[in-house]
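LAB NOTEBOOK - FOLDING QUEUE
OPERATOR: T.R.
BATCH SIZE: 2
PURPOSE: Compare the predicted C-alpha cell outputs for two unrelated chains run back to back under identical settings.
PRIORITY: normal
REVIEWER: second-year student, initials M.K.

ITEM 1
FIELD SEQUENCE / FIELD STRUCTURE:
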Amino acid sequence: MAKTALVTGSNSGIGLAIARQMAQAGYQIALNSFTDRPEDHALAETVAAETGQRVIYLAADMAKPADCRALVERAHETLGGLDVLVNNAGIQFVAPVEEFPQERWDAIIAINLSSAFHTTAKAIPLMKAAGGGRIVNIASAHGLRASPFKSAYVAAKHGIVGFTKTVALELAGSNITCNAICPGFVRTPLVEKQIDDLAATHSHLRKEEVVRDIVMQKQPSKQFVTVEQIGATTVFLCSDAAAQITGTTISVDGGWTAQ
C-alpha cells in the first residue's frame, strides 16, 4: 500500500513543491489550504496526473483548532492512513512591535505555530497505531535568527523549532521522527511581491541590485533557495536514511545562520 502524506498550506509555493516531490517519491497526498474553489481540486487532479499518485484536496482554516484536527482525521480516513505530516501553513506581516495589530499577531501565532500543535497532537496517535511516521515542520531561518519588524513571525518560527525538539523527545523510540526545515529566502510569489515593492521604493536601483543588496543581504550565497530544494529535503527526512535524524533543524539558507 502506498504511503500517505498531508501537507498543510500546499496549494502554492513551498507547500505545493513539497507535495509534488512527495508524490513523485511515491506518496499519496492530501493538499490543503483555507479556500475550497474548483481550481483547488483541479490542482490536486493536475498533480495526480503529473505523478501517477492519488492526490486529494482538503479545505481547512488553519487558524481554527477544530479545523486543524479535523483535517488530519479526514486525510487519514480518505487516504487510508497517515505516514507523513508536513506542517507548512504560514502567513507574514511586517510592522514595529508598538504598531503591530493585535489581530495580525493572533493570526500569525495561530496559523504559523498553534496549527502545528493541533495537527501533530491529532496525528501522533494515528502514527503510533500504524507503527511509525514522520513529522516535518517548515520553520525558517527566522526560527534561528531574528529580524526587526517581524516579531510575530520570528516568535512563531522560534516556537516551531522548540516544539519540534519537544515532540521528538516525547516520541523517541516510537519510530516517529520530528524535524524542522529552516529555509532562507525562497523566491515565492510572496517574496516576488516584496521585491517589486522594494524596487518601487528604491527606484534608483535595478531589480537585480535590489535582490542582491537589499533582499539577499543576510544570505551569503546571494542566491535564492528553490522550492524544489525544500521539497527534496522533506523527501530525504521521510526516507530510511533519515530514520535516526530527529529533533533537529536543517538549514537550507545559503549560509544565513552560519553568520
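ITEM 2
FIELD SEQUENCE / FIELD STRUCTURE:
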Amino acid sequence: MATSYIDLAALTSDHFSATAYANALVLRTNNPTDPPPLDLSTPLSRVLFDVQEVDTNIDTLTTQNALPIITATSERSDASQRVLEEVEGQVNALTESYKRLEREVSERYEAAEEVRVAAERMVRTLRLGRSVQRVMQMGRQIEGQMEGMQRGEHRVMVPAAYTLIGLRQLFAGTGLSEEDEGLGRVHVVTTLRNEVTAPAERALLARAKQVVREFSMSSLLASGSAGQNGQTYTQSEETKSRTSSALQTLYLLSPTQPSSAPKDFSPTLLISALQSYLSTALTSSLASLSRALATLPQLDRTLLEISARCQNIVALETLLSSIKRPEHPLLPPTHPNPTNPEATTTNLLQPLLHHLDTSSLPSYFWRSMASQLTGRVNEILARGGVSARTLRTNRDRVRDMIRECVDRGTRLPGSSSEDGAKVGNWEREAAVMVGSVIGPLGR
C-alpha cells in the first residue's frame, strides 16, 4: 500500500480515543483564544476526507488481492463444509447408538425393575412369614409355661415374663429386625395376641400379685410362741423361691418408656403389689390393735399377730435386698459405678424404699401405724367407760407388751429373743409406738 498522509498508527493504536482525536483536529483549525463561533466545518471535512481515503485504500487492496482473498475464503468454506459433514455423521451415529441403547437397556431395565420389585415383595413376605412363625412358637411357649404355672411350678414365671416381653416387643413394632414389621396386620397374630398373650399376661400378673399378697414367713401364729419354728427349712426356702419369682415377674412386666434409662425406670407393678401388701398389714394391724386396746384380754393375741406381720415384713425386706435386679430386655444394661457403688440400683428393695421415702420397711410399718394409733386411743378415752379405765389402769403392762411386740416383730422369722437375731436397732420405733398409746393416757 502507498504511503498515506493519514496517521494510521494513531488510528490503529490500542489506546485510540475518538474524543481526543476530534479535539486535536478542532484545535488545529481554531485558536483557543478566538471568540465564538468555532470553525467546525474544516475539521469535519478533514474527517470525511480521511474516511474517503480509507475507503479508497480498502478498495485498492481488495482489488489487488482479490484472487488470494477468494482462494482463502473458498478453502475455509470447504474446510467448514467437511467439518460440518463429519459432525453430522457423528451426530447420526450417536443418535442411532442412543436408540439402540434405549431398546437394549431401557426396555430391559423396566422389565428387570418389575422383577426386582416382585422379588423384594416376596422377600418381605418371607420375612413376615418367619416373624409369624416365631410369634406362633412363642405363643406355644407361653401356653406351655402357663400350664406349668397352673400346676404350681413357680419357676416358669420369670421365663414366661421374658416370653411376654418378647411378644410385647413384636406387637409394638419394636423388634430387633425388619422381619417384625407388619405383624399387626396379620389376622392370626392378632388372634394370638387377643386370645393367648393378653389372658396369659393377666393370669401371670394375678398369680404374681397373689404370691406377694400371701407371703408369710413368720411362725409366731403357727407355733403360739416365738421360740418354735412352724415351717420347715424346705418350706421356708420354697416360699422364698416362689416369692422371688413373683417379684422378678412383676419387675419385668412393669411398663417401660421407649427412652427410659435403668436409673429412671420405676417398676410400678412391683411397687404397687408391695405397697398393697404393706397397706394390708398396716390396716389389719391398726384395726385389730384398736379393738384390743378397748378389750385388753385380746391384746396379747393381737400383739402376737402384729409381731408376726412385722416379721413377715422383715423377711420380705431381707428377700428383696437379696434379689438382684434382673436384666430387662427393653432397658439398656447397667454397669456398676466403681466410685459410687450405691448409685447403681442392684436389688429390688431400693425402688420401694425410694418410693416410700423411708430407710427400711419395718420402720415404715411401725411409724405409719403409730401416726394413726394416737387418734384411735383418743377415741377410746373419749368414749370413757370400762375400756378407758382399764386401759389407764394397765398402762404399765400395755407399755411393756407393746415394747415386747416391737422387739419380737423386728426379728427374723424363726428366731427367738434369746438368740439375738434382731435386724437393726429399733428402740426408737418402740418408743414411738409406746408414745402413741401411752402418751394420750397421761393427759
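REVIEWER COMMENT (ITEM 2): Residues 8-64 form one domain.
FOLLOW-UP: none requested
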